[in-house]
Amino acid sequence: MRWKQWLIVLLFPFSWLMPANGLHSEYIWDxxxxxxxxxxxxxxxxxxxxxxxxGLGILVDNxxxxxxxSLMGRQKLTIEETRPLIVGMVQEFINLMKSDPTFEAYxxxxxKHTSWYDPVMSPKRIGIKVSFWDxxxxxxxxxxxxxxxxxxxxxxxxxxxxxxxxxxxxxxETFEEAFALVxxxx
Length: 186
Fold this sequence. Notes:
Layout: H1 2-11, H2 23-46, E1 50-55, E2 67-73, H3 79-99, H4 101-113, E3 126-132, E4 147-151, E5 154-158, E6 171-174, H5 175-184
Parallel strand pairs: 2-3
Antiparallel strand pairs: 1-2, 3-4, 4-5, 5-6
Helix pairs in contact: 2-4, 3-5
């Protein structure tokens, strides 16, 4: 009888790994977001950006985006100069989603708790937001890009209005269009 009590005491720290336990979902979600944060930090460092946050579609104003990261940069880039940077980040994000089984488990677990949530992880479900600011925290004027949002399988490039710091209507392109333009420019 005593050995059973010791077994319970020894196994208790691992009980959160057992699917029957309600904490299993939280473990999957926490692991997915930790992996996403680590990826966001690596992506920022690689592209000379600052990692700001990770989260859901609210970061890119889209509820269908499952996982998103937010970054900031000081670079002064036109759309043509920004495109290869963003395409590279999108490709790395897609590769991460395909290679890390945590994200598939995250999608399946989320679907169990929110039935309308599509359990399939696809490129349309990733989100990236990159804001570009000068040293005074002002947005760069046109023709430079002030913000980029990746959502819905598209890339949206925002510039400021010529007379203010407000963002103008974005120029957008699909992943396929952006990838083709980057390939053709090499």
